[in-house]
Every structure is written in C-alpha cells, then in structure tokens.
C-alpha cells in the first residue's frame, strides 16, 4: 500500500475507559494522533505524557503527538520518552521553531510544526527543510467535534506548491472537522495526512470509517 494518504484517528474522541481497545479498533489507520492540551495554550485540558505512554503500549503504529501546550521546549523530552514518533508543537508557542525542530530531530523523532487558523503559513515557508511535517489546523485548537474551516485549504495548497518546487518531503497534515464530507477538498489541495477524531470514533464502525476516509482521500489526491 502506498504511504499516502495517511488517516490518523485522534484518540481525543475515543472512550478513554477502553483506551487500548479503541486504539486497536482502528487497525486500518496509518498513524494514531494524540492531542495533548494544557489548559493554557488552549482553553481545554486533555491528558499528558502518561496517556501517551499508555497509547504506546497499546499499538506499534506511529504516534503523532500534537502538543497544544505552552513552553513546548520544556516538555518535549517527556513525550519522546513516552514513545512519540512525531512531535508536533505550535509555532505560536515558541520563539524559535527552527531550533526546537532541529533539537527534536537530534533526539531521533520527527519534528512537526502546527499553525492555528489565524497564523499565516508564509512566515514558515523559508524554513520548511527543518520540519518533517506541517500540521494545518482547520478548526481553532482546543476541542474535537468542531466544523471544518474550508478557508484553511489554501494553506495546504501553498505548502504543496512550495514543497514540490523545492523537492522537499515535508508531510502536510490537516486537523479539525475532517470527515467524509470534508476530506476530499483537503486531499485535492495536496494534503498527505488527515486527522479525524469524531468522524472515526463516533461512527458505528470506526475502522470502516477509516477505510472510507482513506478511499475518498486516495481518489481525490492530485497525484
Ligand atoms: C483539536 C484537535 C483535533 C481534534 C480533531 O484541537 O487538535 O485533533 O481532536 O477532532 P475532530 O476530528 O472531531 O475535529
Ligand atoms: Zn490534533
């Protein structure tokens, strides 16, 4: 199977009382997305490194850890120790995204940045070679179950053009409100990876929903 598209179910929407089963239920998923919220960077609190470690014990899949936290420099090592494969921090939470990304790579994990809907992507295009992944938020970070913001697709298209023009292999991921109704627009703009929380875990059959999202994205990808 080709590496892309990647469907990354967000465990934020799962039943935490059955975490391991819920993670294992989405066997068709490429990655597992883990949303860490500190109640400061975003107005909601989810969980921390112990739950990332519990998720790690539940699956061999790539753990895509999305840190919606202040002072990410101070905390990233805890998430690496917990078993994160890709550590994504918000550019709005740090003064030096390039230095933090470089230090993540030196520590042996993939380095990702995330941008809130109001943050222009243009400021980061010149530094793309430092980032293994860019996560475009298509909702305001903080809560699952919000409506997709279609205007964020333009950021995906901008990133796709820049990454292709420079021959980079930075992965473009989108997060927020992704469902069977919205995934094709992001895929058509050249997105590689798709986070889906409610669409997957509120479905009657979460794994069947992953397969459906994968099919829709595959058919809509530009290449
Ligand atoms: C939002 C999180 C998302 C969220 C996605 O702050 O980063 O990953 O869980 O949930 P849905 O797919 O329900 O929008
Ligand atoms: Zn997320």
Walk me through this protein's architecture.
Catalyzes the reversible epimerization of D-ribulose 5-phosphate to D-xylulose 5-phosphate. Its EC number is 5.1.3.1. α3 links the parallel β3 (62-68) and β4 (86-90). The mean pLDDT is 98. This protein has helices at residues 19-25, 49-58, 72-81, 97-106, 122-125, 153-165, 183-188, 198-201, 206-220, and strands at residues 6-9, 31-37, 62-68, 86-90, 110-115, 133-137, 171-175, 193-196. The longest helix is centred in the C-terminal third of the chain and has 15 residues, at 206-220. The chain is globular and about 45 Å long. The chain has an eight-stranded parallel sheet. The chain is built from nine helices and eight strands. 35% of the residues lie in helices and 19% in strands. It has one domain: TIM Barrel, CATH 3.20.20.70. α1 crosses α2 (49-58). It has 223 residues and is α/β, with parallel strands linked by helices. D-xylitol-5-phosphate is lined by residues 10, 12-13, 33, 35, 66, 139, 141-146, 175-178, 195-199.
Provide the spatial order of strands within the biggest beta sheet: 1-8-7-6-5-4-3-2
Give the topology string: H per helix, E per strand: EHEHEHEHEHEHEHEHH
Mean pLDDT: 98
Q: From the alpha-carbon coordinates, what is the Rg to the nearest angstrom?
A: 16 Å
Report the span from N to C terminus: 15 Å
Total helix count?
9
Q: In CATH terms, what is the fold-level topology?
A: TIM Barrel
Strand content: 15-25%
Low-confidence stretches: none
Largest sheet: 8 strands, parallel
Overall SS class: alpha/beta
CATH class: Alpha Beta
Q: Percent range for helical residues?
A: 25-40%
Write down how many β-strands occur, each being a DSSP E stretch of 2 or more residues.
Answer: 8
At the fourth level of CATH, the homologous superfamily is Aldolase class I
* Unique ligands: D-xylitol-5-phosphate, zinc ion
Instruction: Please give the CATH architecture.
Output: Alpha-Beta Barrel
Form type: globular
């Amino acid at each position: 199977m080709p590496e892309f598209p990647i469907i990354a179910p967000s465990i934020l929407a799962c039943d935490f009382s059955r975490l391991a089963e819920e993670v294992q239920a989405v066997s068709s998923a490429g990655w597992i997305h883990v949303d860490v919220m500190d109640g400061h960077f975003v107005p909601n609190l989810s969980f921390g490194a112990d739950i990332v470690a519990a998720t790690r014990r539940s699956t061999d899949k790539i753990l895509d850890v999305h840190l919606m936290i202040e002072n990410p420099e101070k905390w990233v090592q805890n998430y690496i120790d917990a078993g994160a494969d890709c550590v994504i921090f918000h550019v709005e939470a740090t003064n030096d995204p390039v230095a933090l990304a470089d230090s993540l790579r030196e520590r042996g994990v993939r380095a990702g940045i995330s941008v809130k809907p109001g943050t222009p992507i243009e400021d980061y295009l010149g530094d793309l070679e430092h980032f293994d992944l860019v996560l475009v938020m298509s909702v305001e970070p903080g809560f699952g179950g919000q409506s997709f913001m279609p205007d964020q697709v333009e950021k995906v298209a901008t990133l796709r053009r820049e990454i292709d023009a420079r021959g980079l292999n930075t992965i473009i991921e989108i997060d927020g409100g992704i469902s069977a109704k919205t995934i094709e627009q992001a895929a058509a703009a050249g997105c590689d990876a798709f986070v889906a929380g409610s669409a997957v875990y509120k479905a009657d059959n979460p794994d069947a929903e992953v397969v459906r999202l994968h099919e829709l994205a595959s058919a809509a990808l530009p290449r």
